[in-house]
Design goal:
This protein is of the alpha+beta class. It is built from 8 helices and 14 strands. The strands form 5 sheets. Strands 12-11-9-13 form a 4-stranded mixed beta sheet. The structure holds 2-acetamido-2-deoxy-beta-D-glucopyranose (NAG) (2 copies). One 2-acetamido-2-deoxy-beta-D-glucopyranose binds near residues 103, 106, 107 and 110. This is Formylglycine-generating enzyme.
Amino acid sequence: MAAPAAPRARRLRCLLLPLLGLVAAGAAGDCGCSASRGGGDGREAAARRYSAAGGGRGQMVAIPGGAFTMGTDEPEIQQDGEWPARRVHVNSFYMDQYEVSNEEFERFVNSTGYVTEAEKFGDSFVFEGMLSEEVKADIHQAVAAAPWWLPVKGANWRHPEGPDSSISNRMDHPVLHVSWNDAVAFCTWAGKRLPTEAEWEYSCRGGLENRLFPWGNKLQPRGEHYANIWQGVFPTNNTAEDGYKGTAPVTAFPPNGYGLYNIVGNAWEWTSDWWAVHHSTDEVHNPKGPSSGTDRVKKGGSYMCHKSHCYRYRCAARSQNTPDSSASNLGFRCAADAS
Ligand SMILES: *[C@@H]1O[C@H](CO)[C@@H](O)[C@H](O)[C@H]1NC(C)=O
Ligand SMILES: *[C@@H]1O[C@H](CO)[C@@H](O)[C@H](O)[C@H]1NC(C)=O
């Protein structure tokens, strides 16, 4: 295992969270909270090396600036800081129509030689339900509050379920096992950047005000599936009624009002903001989150989200990981300035 330049003890964040009665599972152990590695360092600067080698604004949509209600006054998961509702203005910007796919990430790696943090650390967190018995037999630790997360040696974006897996038949699925630092490196290379949390949530809402989901308040309008989440009993039985047990192609499911696909479900998406749970109700313009922190905000939930454990496939929902964390349900999309 290639040691990172500055070895860091991996921190099992889930063990540190207060377990709050009935919401303990939601707080500590779901698709939202995977185990985090230790804190960040100067990798962001290193990522700048890949600047501007990429190309174009391919497959982005122009999001018209405006004001919206960020967060909610009816939080489903209080401790995530998805409240209070507050008035937020954002300037016009561009947003990737799709989550960054394995194919796009491979193009980036081919042209830069970039090595992801999971590759450097030599392992990444994988959802147990996706692992072969062979791989599982080799693992002797798990995240106490979320035993379905296992650290798997050799798991990375090319091998999402460990060395015996590959992405060859899912090049159009979202890239996984990319840390926040990796995501920043990719977006920078592409001449883009990560969206702020405000931009992400504004995008998610697709022009609707105060709705739970990108398409409205009803999870399955007319019985149709609008996102790749978990059906069945979590974590043992994903019936895949939406068509997918794991990730889906980034082009699957209907787009929202802004033409964005899989903005909730499928894979969690990194944003540029540091994580904090207390928000002022002051009306603000183009907020960029706290000026420092230990974790970065991720939004949207993933294929592992079920209402019982992780009701986080809502636009207001949010979660966090350290910037060097990676997992089998965490990806990203990029944004860009309008001018
Ligand atoms: C990356 O490089 C490999 C080896 O040359 C090639 O087979 C593959 O098609 C390339 N991937 C992309 C997305 O261009
Ligand atoms: C999973 O859930 C479905 C639907 O409730 C049920 O038919 C099936 O038997 C379950 N499978 C297992 C392995 O429990």
